[in-house]
Specification:
The protein is an alpha/beta fold and 354 residues long. It is built from 9 helices and 14 strands. It has 2 domains: 238 residues, Aspartate Aminotransferase, domain 2, CATH 3.40.640.10; 100 residues, Aspartate Aminotransferase, domain 1, CATH 3.90.1150.10. It binds pyridoxal-5'-phosphate.
Length: 354
């Protein structure tokens, strides 16, 4: 039976991508060799890495604007410290929208002064802080565009004279934004791009080279740029599969095309959450994430019934994160509108039963 995969991460990928990626494990594009048994310096793999880096910039509309795309390792969590290592000389600003920002702040404090410009901790991160002031003279301002756990998403980005650094792990390539407003964007692949094992970093080159500390080679953006993401052996499978997903997205019409579908999916689910008395949304309405919808049952005793119905409908990965409880439906790019429809049907069936 077909499963509807609402997992928050690692998560759903397009079926075509999975097919092509599995073929490449046996035979990379007719080469007679497996993707994972050829040299990363081979002509075939160098071309894959180049295409992945180019596609990332093209999809974001950032080609020829001084940006470089890198595929690194260590997950988005490694970026929490790499950003600070490479950019934090004196003082950086961080907007705290929950777990991921919290972790980024903790790492940055090892390197310099951190100003928390705003926080939604008082309400267990169910909203995005607004109306905060960003002090002048920051080395950078760090934001998390989408909070995967609490289901909140920044809709309007703050005006600041500081370079903008953004963790877009859970909404990269999902909505139309002016990406040139950002100086550094990073995203762990496993939420909306590919398998775990690689992290996309898009960085404006003129941002680099300004800190006085010495930076170890593996943690230096400049070294990774010079070596074209091949300073050491890259995670070839994760990069190849991410490239396939970006190809898939480009053929679909790029970010504007997927954004429209993502809006439809989110509207369908949120209107059910709002109209159905059995359910209650978690995140503040204005700040609701198009990617991760968090909600709960109004009657906790209905949990077993609902869980059984979800299982029968082939719905996977709907459990909320332990810091929020309840349910979380992750609707990444590869999840179809049809799958959201199946979930919404189960929810309305619950209303009849509940
Ligand atoms: C999942 C996630 C991370 C952590 O990613 P890893 O690749 O596991 O280190 C960081 N930030 C956000 C917004 C995430 O959703």
């Amino acid at each position: 039976m077909k499963k509807h995969n609402f997992s928050a991460g690692p998560c759903i990928l397009p079926k075509d991508v999975l097919l092509k990626a599995s073929e490449a494990i046996m035979d990379l594009e007719g080469s007679g060799l497996s993707l994972i048994e050829i040299s990363h310096r081979s002509k075939d793999f160098v071309a894959i890495m180049e295409r992945a880096r180019t596609l990332a910039l093209t999809l974001l509309g950032l080609e020829d604007q001084g940006y470089k795309a890198l595929f690194l390792q260590g997950g988005a969590s490694m970026q929490f410290l790499m950003v600070a290592y490479n950019l934090l000389e004196k003082k950086a600003g961080y907007l705290n929208t929950g777990t991921w920002s919290d972790k980024a702040i903790k790492e940055a404090k090892l390197f310099g002064e951190v100003v928390e410009v705003g926080s939604s901790k008082d309400e267990n991160f169910n909203y995005i802080p607004k109306g905060y002031t960003v002090p002048h003279g920051l080395d950078y301002l760090h934001l998390t565009s989408n909070n995967t756990i609490f289901g909140t998403q920044i809709k309007k980005f703050p005006k600041t004279d500081a370079p903008l650094v953004c963790d877009m792990s859970s909404d990269i390539f999902s909505r139309v934004l002016d990406f040139s407003k950002f100086d550094l964007i990073y995203a762990g692949a496993q939420k909306n791009m590919g398998p775990a094992g690689t992290t996309l970093v898009v960085v404006k080159e003129d941002l680099l080279g300004k800190v006085s500390r010495k930076i170890p080679s593996m943690l230096s953006y400049q070294i990774h740029i010079e070596k074209e993401s091949m300073f050491n052996t890259p995670p070839v499978f994760a990069v190849y599969t991410s490239m396939l997903t970006m190809d898939w997205l480009e053929q679909l019409g790029g970010i504007p095309a997927i954004a429209e579908i993502n809006e439809k999916k989110a509207q369908l689910l949120y209107s059910e959450i709002d109209l159905n008395p059995v359910f209650q949304g978690y995140a503040n309405q204005d700040d609701r994430s198009v990617m991760n919808a968090t909600f709960n049952l109004t009657e906790p005793k209905l949990r077993d019934t609902f869980d059984e119905m979800l299982r029968e409908a082939g719905i996977n990965g709907l459990n909320g994160h332990r810091s929020v409880g309840g349910y979380r439906a992750s609707m990444y790019n590869a999840l179809s509108l049809e799958s959201v429809g199946v979930l919404v049907d189960v929810m309305s069936e619950m209303e009849r039963k509940g």
